[in-house]
Write a structure and sequence with these properties.
single chain; mainly alpha; fold of a uncharacterized protein from magnetospirillum magneticum
């Protein structure tokens, strides 16, 4: 992203709810497949508490965040979401997070994938901190977050990478090995969403 385009749009930073939200997505995907209406999916999920949240406010927040992410998936991706392996689901939900949040997508492409391609082997908190500082030069909203929120954003992002099978708990990069059906979904996007993953595939 160029500095001029980066400066023109604010980063959405609401991804502190949960991690990759794979379980939640698997539950909500069939509801969308039945109704084809995201507003109706939200209403049903909240009214029936199908994510089994402990409180109403938690349920509302979790449903909203899950819908925000899986609504970036194509109908084909949503249809296969409940039928894929854990690895495939992790890849689809990581792609969804990257599509929904430019900050995550740019980190995935500029740091995670780049460090894999240059054989760095790991991704550290320091790598994230450097990336964040560089982005903050063009995005005042990044400077405005509290220290606690900053740490939470970083914690959740690293948790997502681990849950997606792209990083170990010790922050060693794990190459993404795609199934044919997930790879086919990712390359339908222009540019290809393969760019969000640690892989030499193009």
């Amino acid at each position: 992203m160029s500095s001029s385009s980066a400066a023109s749009s604010r980063y959405a930073l609401s991804f502190t709810t949960g991690g990759l939200l794979e379980r939640e997505a698997t539950i909500l995907a069939p509801v969308y497949t039945e109704h084809r209406d995201w507003a109706k999916v939200r209403d049903i999920a909240v009214a029936e508490n199908i994510l089994q949240a402990r409180t109403h406010s938690t349920g509302v927040r979790c449903v909203r965040e899950t819908v925000n992410r899986i609504s970036t998936l194509s109908d084909r991706e949503i249809e296969i979401l409940a039928d894929v392996t854990a690895s495939e689901r992790g890849h689809l939900m990581w792609a969804a997070a990257c599509r929904r949040y430019d900050l995550i997508g740019e980190f995935a492409e500029e740091v995670l994938r780049e460090r894999f391609l240059t054989l760095a082997g790991t991704v550290s908190h320091e790598d994230y901190d450097s990336f964040y500082r560089a982005k903050a030069m063009w995005h005042d909203e990044l400077d405005d977050v509290s220290t606690a929120t900053y740490k939470k954003l970083r914690q959740v992002l690293f948790r997502m990478m681990v849950e997606a099978g792209l990083l170990t708990a010790k922050r060693v990069i794990e190459p993404a090995l795609f199934s044919a059906r997930v790879a086919d979904c990712l390359v339908q996007r222009k540019p290809s969403d393969i760019r969000f993953f640690p892989t030499r595939e193009s």
